[in-house]
Amino acid sequence: MLNFEYxxxxxxxxxxxxxxxxxxxxxxxxxxxxxYGGGSIKKNGVYNQVVTxxxxxxxxxxxxxxxxxxxxxxxxxxxxxxxxxxGFLLAVGGGSVLxxxxxxxxxxxxxxxxxxxxLAKGAEVKAAVPLGxxxxxxxxxxxxxxxxxxxxxxxxxxxxFSSPCVYPQFSIxxxxxxxxxPERQTVNGIVDAYVHVFEQYMTYDMSSPLQxxxxxxxxxxxxxxxxxxxxxxxxxxxxSNVMWAATNALNGLIGCxxxxxxxxxxxxxxxxxxxxxxxxxxxxxxxxxxxTHCKKEKQAKLLQYGQRIFGLxxxxxxxxxTEDFFNSLGMKTHLSDYKIDAVDAANKxxxxxxxxxxxxxxxxxxxxxGVSQILLGxx
Length: 379
Ligand code: NZQ
Ligand code: ZN
Known about the structure:
Structural class: alpha/beta
CATH superfamily of the largest domain: Dehydroquinate synthase-like - alpha domain
Strand order of the largest sheet: 1-8-5-4-2-3
Shape: globular
Number of domains: 2
Radius of gyration: 20 Å
Bound molecules: 5,6-dihydroxy-NADP, zinc ion
């Protein structure tokens, strides 16, 4: 029986030349902090477009947000917001810049003692500095969701929080900004979006044919359009379709009322925390082995997926077709490809999950020992 609430207040402005719309979207009567990463936006012209669109507003900048953004970096921006009396945050970049901006927005107005508690203890976020985004990397769905994932250098942890307070007021999605993506990041984005769909779809039947078909539509779109952007990075239409598919993969819609897994992500976050591999790389390694490990529980959905997406009649063949698709994009799917020792990873990650008392999966039946077995299989 379906039972859910769904509200998504993010205004999406999609298409060529839409960065100019910032002039209408960003308040003109407060100081704005523009946040960005390591400088890709200066090379591809996005920075100039943003600065031009913001016109005469008082705009300060905070740069240097790293991939898998660090708490330590975020807290420097929090200090700046307080000192400069910033009233609006504008994130310009990929998921890392957007996630960092969300955390910064919440931390700046956090009523408790230590903002790390938002991530480590689930401390409630009651308010956040208003924010907007210009997305340059389709992958995470951060532009249209309430999630943020932050790492801490001092403890080697990677944790997430979710709060409706950090919904962007708007997100600008201009597919032309993605022309400059290195192939590795383009591939990362396709795989991340694919796995987001899986986490909300590859569970058990809930009599939710609409959500299933929506999920399958996103998967088919990624399979059809993904290779086009690898082949021709300047293919505007294919870039648009990949971008919108990635947003739809994690804006909450396909997850309405259905069981969700997220085990691949939780294990993947630990792989990134311990070994620094890209988020999507970690998912590509874990997903095929997790599906094999949980084949019995996911049998019906695996068969449906295999049949509808690939015309296959067998769960193992469906899992193999998924891994083959990742490989066809150039994504490596084994720990050894990233020079990670499977035994070391299995020990470290299962111990950490045990210490936290974490059980994973759509029925919370995947134990740290199960995770250890999965990781050993990822060799
Ligand atoms: O820092 P700059 O110089 O901008 O370079 C970035 C970065 O090096 C570069 N890049 C971005 N747009 C570009 C570009 N280079 C050229 N042209 C462009 N148009 O790409 C590199 C990677 O960027 P990053 O933002 O780290 O990638 P992504 O969007 O994949 O974000 C990954 C982060 O998002 C989290 C991940 O855990 C990871 O920390 N996630 C966030 C989620 C969410 N908020 O809902 C869900 C996801 O599952 C994920 O966990
Ligand atoms: Zn992800």
